[in-house]
Automatic annotation (TrEMBL):
Belongs to the KAE1 / TsaD family. This is N(6)-L-threonylcarbamoyladenine synthase. Its main location: cytoplasm. Its EC number is 2.3.1.234. Residues 71-365 form the Gcp-like domain. A divalent metal cation binds at H157, H161, Y178, D359. Binds 1 divalent metal cation per subunit. It comes from Tieghemiomyces parasiticus. NCBIfam families: gcp_kae1. One of its GO terms (molecular function) is metal ion binding.
């Protein structure tokens, strides 16, 4: 839908027409984490009186929404963890989400001190993500909406991360580095949408780190990426890995392939599959290499690539803010490298802790509540999941 379609809203169709408070339940399950969150949005004043013809301008509504109070009432999560060396399959992850959904929803209402009839909207992750887990959560959301007679709000997972990051950190109009197990994007807001300036051409940075963790048999508890980060702190030898930046885009599959060859040759690692092509460059590396050295080298290389494309986006739009979101955004070394780049530019870096950077239900509740306050809902026939739901497909009607 064109941005011009959102220049004015019919105030009679907005939930804040004659009241100030909206409570939203959010359900997240795009990967191996099932999250449930409850948020309360409170405007300083209801939308009455509206402008001429009962309409309110997009700018006026966005201004009101930006100043409203946001309370996190509940934010609970359960992670499906597999044995060391193994990933998580969509079918098994979907079973996990169905198994824990009722327990987490019950706990969220208990933490919030609310009843189901006090919720105004049921928000759920519509995509992107893994099909099976997304479908499980969508079924739960539809069921609750029908049982409680509440509207559904489908939420883009990436937009959920961005809006929660903006809310928690106070970043106003940042360049966003979105890094997770399934996504790697550099994003900035312009003309009613979050525009993708650059992204991965193959696998996501989190997937790259997770797969290497499995190669060297690091445990998946609490997460493979976290264990890579801890191991990297004990590494000291920097292996020269392939550095693949193509304009504003990045590629990680070649790095992963090369470092797997190093692990096989220098650490005696067997991956259970076909051995990587023998590389002369691997022979030149010292035999004293440790798993910690490889974790250190991998982090330094991939994070340098991410910092480079983020800085280029900042220069392009003249931004002085960087917001890091997504599960990999919890990595302290990534935050340090980004902070050094920002310091040299006189800019600021914003990041959240694991409560909000790792997939969670409250980010879906918050982004869903914002959309709902602009009159957006998702009909039952339209509530199907979309595995490749692009960030820039969402009309961000709550911003100007």
């Amino acid at each position: 839908m064109a941005a011009s379609a959102f220049e004015f809203f019919n105030a009679d169709l907005l939930p804040n027409r004659d009241r100030t408070t909206i409570v939203a339940l959010g359900l997240e399950g795009s990967a191996n984490k099932l999250g449930v969150g409850i948020v309360r949005h409170t405007l300083s004043t209801p939308l009455l009186p509206a402008g001429p013809n009962g309409r309110i301008s997009r700018a006026a509504l966005a201004d009101l929404l930006s100043q409203q109070a946001v309370e996190v009432l509940a934010n609970v999560r359960h992670t499906y963890i597999t044995p060391a060396g193994q990933g998580f399959l969509p079918k098994d992850t979907a079973v996990h989400h169905r198994q824990y959904a009722i327990e987490l929803i019950t706990q969220a209402f208990r933490d919030a001190g609310l009843r189901p009839d006090q919720v105004d909207a049921i928000c759920f992750t519509q995509g992107p993500g893994m099909g099976g887990p997304l479908q499980s959560v969508a079924v739960v959301a539809r069921t609750l909406a029908r049982l409680w007679n509440r509207p559904l709000v489908g939420v883009n997972h990436c937009v959920g991360h961005i809006e929660m990051g903006r809310q928690i950190t106070g970043a106003t109009n940042p360049v966003v580095l979105y890094v997770s197990g399934g996504n790697t994007q550099v994003i900035a807001y312009a003309q009613g949408r979050y525009r993708i300036f650059g992204e991965t051409l193959d696998i996501a940075v989190g997937n790259c780190l997770d797969r290497f963790a499995r190669i060297i048999n690091l445990p998946n508890d609490p997460s493979p990426g976290y264990n890579i980060e801890q191991a990297a702190r004990r590494g000291s030898y920097l292996v020269d890995l392939p550095y693949t930046v193509k304009g504003m885009d990045v590629s990680f599959s070649g790095i992963l392939s090369f470092i797997q060859s190093v692990a096989q040759a220098k650490l005696g690692v067997t991956t259970g599959g076909r051995a990587q092509h023998h590389l002369a460059a691997v022979d030149e590396l010292p035999n004293s290499l440790t798993p910690e050295d490889l974790c250190f080298s991998l982090q330094e290389t991939v994070f340098a690539m991410l910092v480079e494309i983020t800085e280029r986006a900042m220069a392009h739009i003249g931004s002085e803010e960087v917001l890091i979101v997504g599960g990999v955004g919890c990595n302290v070394r990534l935050q340090e490298m980004m902070a050094e780049m920002a310091r040299q530019r006189g800019a600021k870096v914003f990041a959240t802790d694991e409560r909000f950077c790792i997939d969670n239900g409250i980010m879906i509740a918050h982004a869903g509540a914002l959309a709902y306050q602009t009159g957006f809902t998702t009909s039952l026939p339209a509530s199907t999941i979309t595995q490749r739901f692009r960030t820039d497909e969402v009309q961000v009607a709550w911003r100007t």
